[in-house]
Amino acid sequence: MCRQASDFERRQRRAIIAAALFVGLLLAALGGRLVHIHTMLSPKLTAMLEAQQQSRSVIPARRGMIHDARGRVLAGSRLLYGVFADPTRIERLDQAARQVAAILNLEAGEVEDRIRHGSSPRFRWLAHRVAPAEAEAVRQADIPGVGLIDEPVRHYALGPTMAQVLGFVGDDGIGLEGLELACDRFLSGRDGHVWTVRDARRRPIRQSEDLDRCGEQPRDGGHVVLTLDAVIQGVLEKHLASQAGQFQAEDGFGVVMDPRTGDVLAMACHPTFDPNNYADFPRQTWRNRVVTDMVEPGSTFKPFVASGALVAGIVALDEKIYCHDGLYVTGRRRLHDASPHGKMTFEEIVSRSSNIGMAIIGQRMGNPAIHEIVRRFGFGQPTGIDFPGEAPGNVLPLSQWTSYSTTSVPMGQEIAVTPLQLITAFCAIINDGVLLRPRLIRAFLSPDGRVLEEFTGPDPARRVLPTEVAGYLSQQVLVKVVNGGTGRRAALAEYQVLGKTGTAQVPYEDRRGYEPDAYLGSFLGAAPAEDPRVAVLVMIKRPNPRLGYYGGVIAAPAVREILAEALAYLQVPATTRKVAAVRLRPTASPL
């Protein structure tokens, strides 16, 4: 009996010892785990705790404004609101949906569907761009799980005016087109943020007391001042739309420039769009085709090649060139004039826009000389304007030019230019032969309006023509285009206008040759001729040929009206229409 009791006691002691050892080991393990938690895992757990207790809210920076040359606001931002829901905090879904729907004038079922479905488990968009009054009603309703987010929205005060130049921003506030894209980094600034302490239900309690993490103030974007003038822009768009409508044209392009500085005063395409609702318009209307699209210039190109002939001295001004009575056969090519001419002087060839006369001048010059003057005027290379997507034009390498090029290029074929290149080169002729870089941006301002960088005065690229050659062309030859040549419809009583007409066929985009009955009518004009203050280009593309398509008919009248209104607005005094004769003896002296 005693032996049995002794065995039982021994087993009991062993069980107690084993249990004690187990408890000791368990306590040791728990202690080790606590040490591990307080040492190795402490930073991670602390971060998790802070993430649960604190949230980072973005404070959006205010996007800078865009002004015209006289300080008018063209693009600015106004504060609207976005309404969102956190499904995990909504206790009665149907009730919350009805409340939100009543405030925002939505269907309750639609709101409930937006709350139920979404990519984020704790965030659902209910509405964008909510007006302040409706946002305040949402705030006052104090619906659990429903909140507001600031949504600055871009606003374009003049609607479609300057649309292709200004461009627009997307719903995320990032510039997508035009100057909004080109200047996006400067305009957008940098968002700030604030850390907020929240309770277990994610309700805000207070701003974090951790000064290192309490937040950062947003840095608002700077402002941009343009060279464009809203009044002159309105004049250009009005007459461009009028001419395109009158002649049932597919497209229209227009530019107004100060030839003394290269400042672009207005730039427009027709048809246009409203950047406030850009998604409602075809994508092709968004593009600033004055800068991005290339066209064959037609006869507006003749003065540039003609100037090279003067510089080279291969044309005598008192000489009369036989223009073959309207039909000129050279090799296998047959060239025609719009009306037959016999012998013509240099001035008459340009002012009456003779294709045959320019082809003969081109043959005298030869391809190397033509190519050289074309490149000197900047064709085939970007102008350098501050605008995204600028096309360089198309001038083939000299090695690819043929005998057809010799007669085609002088009359504006076998070459492609942008409307901006064309008026920039034209301004070089009327600016004493100096080519200027065109400019759209006049200044960059800080958020508080201080001038950070300013661009004033001309920005010369190079001298293209000797002063006397440029003066002879502008004040003698191009004046005759308006006074007695193809540009008579551009004449003004108060100012002497100079300019050049152009009528080009529209080439196929995917193969050689020209589209039937597709034309581009153009006019380049400036006034007053003795001291040009304003230069204007108007191009009307694919008009109804039954209504008219010559540049002197469909574009010159618009240039006349634009010049008249722009010069009056700029308070340029009216002058006599008589311009002193310019004598010129061309020489082969270098530029």
Descriptive account of the structure:
The protein has 591 residues and is of the alpha+beta class. The protein folds into three domains: 1-39; 77-156, Alpha-Beta Complex (Penicillin-binding protein 2a (Domain 2)); 230-569, DD-peptidase/beta-lactamase superfamily (Beta-lactamase, 3-Layer(aba) Sandwich), CATH 3.40.710.10. Helix content is 35%, strand content 23%. It is built from 19 helices and 24 strands. Strands 2, 3, 4, 5, 11, 19 and 20 form a seven-stranded mixed β-sheet that branches. Helix 11 (302-312) packs across helix 13 (355-365) and helix 11 packs across helix 17 (467-484). Residues 205-212 and 586-591 have low confidence and may be disordered.
What's a quick, concise take on this entry?
With 591 residues, the protein is α+β, with helices and mostly antiparallel strands.
Summarize the SSE layout with pairings.
Elements: H1 2-39, H2 42-53, E1 54-59, E2 66-67, E3 73-85, H3 93-104, H4 108-116, E4 124-130, H5 132-141, E5 146-156, H6 163-166, E6 168-169, E7 175-177, H7 178-182, H8 184-188, E8 192-198, E9 204-207, E10 215-216, E11 223-226, H9 230-246, E12 251-257, E13 264-270, H10 289-292, H11 302-312, E14 321-322, E15 327-330, E16 333-336, E17 343-344, H12 346-351, H13 355-365, H14 367-376, H15 403-408, H16 419-430, E18 434-436, E19 441-445, E20 451-454, E21 460-463, H17 467-484, E22 498-507, E23 514-527, E24 534-541, H18 551-554, H19 556-569
Parallel strand pairs: 2-11
Antiparallel strand pairs: 1-8, 2-3, 3-4, 3-5, 6-7, 8-9, 8-10, 11-19, 12-13, 12-24, 14-17, 15-16, 18-21, 19-20, 22-23, 23-24
Helix pairs in contact: 3-4, 3-5, 9-19, 11-13, 11-14, 11-17
